[in-house]
């Protein structure tokens, strides 16, 4: 087992303040790649299996079949999880070079440990770290950023559950690492076009910090073999 | 020449990192660049697609050293496989990849249509890939290009098979591997190392076999000093 | 020849059309398919609508029932949307429990009802803490040819505008609800969101209103929902290739004009059925 846990503290005065982040890779022994990602009190554990044998019914002749499962902290996964799975899966598909492993299956399991807001972005971050740990070929990295617009019109990045509840609109974006484009977007509440553009800009700025955090985590992981 | 690239050697790279050679004049690009695992060539750019440490072997070979666990077959690599079924004239061999590899009964030293090799389901084979690409079923052989076994074939009636990370396997397989040298000093043992992360060990007693296996597994995340200290302790405690 | 090309190289086939700024069905890149609307098609439902966007056919029925309001919000009613993709509508859907796409669409519609505030849930309350309406909005796809979400949103909105609920009073003496089916009231639809879907080809070319084939060949799909105040109610992009800010802005402006077109259509159809009542 290898420990790459570290913390990232960002000055809270800037507009894209993030909570304290933590990440550990390769912490599970069975999966081919695993990670745990912590954003403040929100925590998600991810495991990746593959490239492995695929069921004939799910086989795709020119690329790998990706399956994403999100397990909630309590109870069965329902419609909400299914919608989140779709978002995570299609984001991963955009980043992975799945044509390099045709006719094989990749499965990504995300176990929610604790939800204190920004859950989907934490799932995306955990997924990216787990895919990287599994050594699957990727064209770029991605990260998830959640933005909340509060009653006064201020943008809060990486909101807690309380801040999410008090917000008037909530948006989650997945940003890619090469061009900082929006890979995934899902929103709640209504907002103006201008607010949307601001949130995207803030998320893009926040993504820089997250990608730097990714790099530091991976560097720490490989520190012994450098 | 590859200055932008070379000064990154030994550093951690992440998927999506791009090294561009477009700024160089076309005629000065005489040196050819060979991209190993984890790197992809795209016109004048080299794209990193795996996380790990960038390595360089003079004059122009670059690759990413990553700690991957799942094996992906590659042509020419020697692996330890487990025979799972016999289908007609071929054996299906599990090598830990996404698909089972096939192994013809004629691909053994001295095998002919009359003189079939003695291979049973469940046997371990040390074999080499002659076909391994993403579009075809991987195929193994237990002979080299001259038809000699050259160490390959069925092995391991007893002993212990276990899995380690692909990174550790590569460290074991480098010529003059430090780890192997240190281990050899403890007591004599036989070892087969497959590129697919499988290691088979046999020593004089079961206890010694287990010691070797446990030591190898613990080497995974140790620095050279930590390892040396551990081996010294074991050497002291061993009869 | 063309049919063989289409089967062998579907992506190349579409690309050759897109290069000429048109699409295999003769549309321009920014053109929607003909949208038709039929309101009140199910006589047994409290409100219903049938929408066709090209071949895609979606029907929405609204059934109202009485229930006790939720304990944490005693002055609110319930809206329960559900999107069904039966095997009838396309060979890609299998019988059995709803698949990922159907569940994701249901969640999208449920989120949209909350985000856009189509109906104030307080309006569904009859007596605080005692009685409120539950609106079951069942959306069923009869023919799947892409752009499901747009069709669902239009069908839902039209069905809600069509819905008529009987007057309910609580008898003070018996404490029982009394329904008066003679007195029907329409629902108070406060916001009118309309969605526009786009597909991205080869990470760059954006087309509107993709067919099922275009959806499966595209690298990403986006659904933008706007309301009459030109505010965004949803920007749903489940993944796929990245999109630059300019392209996104184009999508939003196209969604705003589409909103006007669809609003006009719904109002016209509503007006045309009024005299019969």
Structural account:
The complex is a heterotrimer of chains A (226), B (239) and C (277). Chain A contains 4 helices and 9 strands. Chain A is of the alpha+beta class. In chain A, the strands form 2 sheets. A 5-stranded mixed sheet of chain A has the order 1-2-3-5-4, with helices on one face. Chain A has a 4-stranded antiparallel sheet with strand order 7-6-8-9, sandwiched between helices. In chain A, a hairpin with a 2-residue loop joins β2 and β3 (42-52). In chain A, α1 crosses α2. Residues 1-14 of chain A have low confidence and may be disordered. Chain B is of the alpha+beta class. In chain B, β6 and β7 (61-65) form a beta hairpin. The N and C termini of chain B lie far apart (56 Å). In chain C, the strands form 3 sheets. In chain C, strands 1, 2, 3, 4, 5 and 6 form a 6-stranded mixed sheet that branches. Chain C has 277 residues and is of the alpha+beta class. Chain C has helices at residues 2-8, 10-19, 100-116, 148-162, 212-217, 245-273; strands at 35-39, 47-53, 56-67, 78-84, 125-127, 131-143, 164-170, 177-186, 194-201, 205-208, 220-226, 232-236. Classes of the chains: A alpha+beta (226), B alpha+beta (239), C alpha+beta (277). At the A-B interface, β3 and α4 of A face loops of B. Chain B: Residues 30-66 form the Exosome complex component RRP40 N-terminal domain. Chain B: It comes from Scleropages formosus (Asian bonytongue). Chain B: Belongs to the RRP40 family. Chain B: Keywords: Cytoplasm, Exosome, Nucleus, RNA-binding, rRNA processing. Chain B: Its main location: cytoplasm.
């Amino acid at each position: 087992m290898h420990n790459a846990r570290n913390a990232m503290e960002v000055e809270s005065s800037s507009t894209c303040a993030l909570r304290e982040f933590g990440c550990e890779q390769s912490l599970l022994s069975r999966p081919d790649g695993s990670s745990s990602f912590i954003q403040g009190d929100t925590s998600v554990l991810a495991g990746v299996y593959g490239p492995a044998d695929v069921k004939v019914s799910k086989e795709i002749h020119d690329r790998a079949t990706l399956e994403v499962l999100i397990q909630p902290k309590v109870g069965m996964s329902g419609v909400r999880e299914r919608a989140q799975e779709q978002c995570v899966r299609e984001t991963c598909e955009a980043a992975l070079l799945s044509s390099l492993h045709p006719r094989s299956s990749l499965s990504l399991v995300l176990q929610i440990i604790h939800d204190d807001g920004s859950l989907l972005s934490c799932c995306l971050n955990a997924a990216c770290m787990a895919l990287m740990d599994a050594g699957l070929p990727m064209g770029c990295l991605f990260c998830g950023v959640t933005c909340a617009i509060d009653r006064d019109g201020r943008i809060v990045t990486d909101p807690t559950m309380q801040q999410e509840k008090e917000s008037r609109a909530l948006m989650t974006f997945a940003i890619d690492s090469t061009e900082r484009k929006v890979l995934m977007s899902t929103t709640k509440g209504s907002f103006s076009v201008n607010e949307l553009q601001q949130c995207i800009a803030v998320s893009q700025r926040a993504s820089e910090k997250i990608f730097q955090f990714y790099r530091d985590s991976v560097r720490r992981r490989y520190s012994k073999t450098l | 020449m590859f200055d932008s690239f070379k000064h990154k050697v030994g550093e951690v790279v992440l998927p999506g990192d791009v090294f561009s050679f477009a700024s160089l004049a076309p005629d000065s690009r005489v040196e050819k660049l060979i991209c190993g695992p984890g790197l992809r060539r795209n016109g004048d750019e080299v794209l990193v697609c795996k996380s790990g440490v960038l390595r360089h072997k003079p004059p122009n070979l670059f690759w990413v050293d990553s700690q991957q666990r799942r094996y992906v077959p590659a042509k020419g690599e020697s692996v330890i496989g487990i025979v799972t079924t016999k289908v007609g004239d071929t054996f299906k061999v599990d090598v830990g990849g996404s698909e089972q590899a096939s192994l013809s009964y004629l691909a053994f030293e001295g095998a002919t249509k009359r003189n079939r090799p003695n291979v049973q389901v469940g046997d371990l084979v040390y074999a080499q890939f002659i076909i391994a690409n993403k579009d075809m079923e991987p195929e193994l052989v237990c002979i080299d290009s001259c038809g000699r076994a050259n160490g390959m074939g069925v092995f391991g009636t007893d002993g212990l098979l276990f899995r380690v990370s692909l990174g550790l396997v590569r460290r074991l397989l480098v010529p003059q591997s430090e780890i192997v040298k240190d281990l050899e000093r403890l007591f004599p043992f036989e070892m087969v190392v497959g590129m697919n992360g499988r290691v088979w060990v046999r020593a004089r007693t079961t206890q010694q076999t287990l010691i070797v296996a446990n030591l190898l597994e613990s080497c995974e995340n140790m620095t050279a000093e930590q390892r040396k200290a551990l081996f010294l302790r074991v050497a002291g405690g061993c009869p | 020849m063309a049919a063989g090309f289409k089967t062998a190289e579907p992506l190349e086939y579409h690309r050759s059309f897109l290069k000429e700024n048109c699409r295999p069905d003769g549309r321009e890149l920014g053109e929607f398919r003909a949208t038709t609307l039929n309101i009140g098609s199910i006589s047994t439902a409290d409100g219903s609508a049938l929408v066709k966007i090209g071949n895609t056919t979606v029907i929405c029925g609204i059934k109202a029932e009485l229930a006790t309001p939720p304990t944490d919000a005693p002055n609110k009613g319930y809206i329960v949307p559900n999107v069904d993709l039966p095997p009838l509508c396309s060979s890609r859907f299998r019988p059995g429990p709803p698949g990922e796409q159907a569940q994701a669409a249901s969640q999208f519609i449920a989120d949209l009802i909350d985000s856009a505030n189509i109906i104030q849930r307080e309006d569904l309350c009859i007596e605080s803490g005692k009685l409120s309406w539950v609106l079951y909005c069942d959306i069923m796809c009869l023919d799947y040819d892409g752009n499901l979400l747009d069709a669902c949103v239009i069908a839902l909105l039209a069905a809600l505008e069509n819905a008529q609920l009987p007057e309910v009073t609580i008898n003070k003496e018996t404490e029982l609800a009394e329904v008066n089916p003679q007195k029907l009231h329409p629902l108070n639809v406060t916001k009118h969101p309309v969605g526009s879907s786009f597909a991205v080809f080869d990470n760059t070319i954006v087309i509107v209103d993709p067919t099922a084939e275009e959806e499966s060949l595209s690298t990403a799909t986006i659904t933008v929902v706007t309301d009459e105040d030109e505010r965004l109610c949803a920007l749903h992009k489940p993944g796929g290739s990245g999109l630059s800010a300019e392209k996104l802005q184009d999508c939003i402006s196209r969604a705003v004009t589409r909103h006007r077109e669809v609003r006009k259509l719904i109002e016209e159809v509503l007006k045309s059925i009024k005299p019969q009542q």
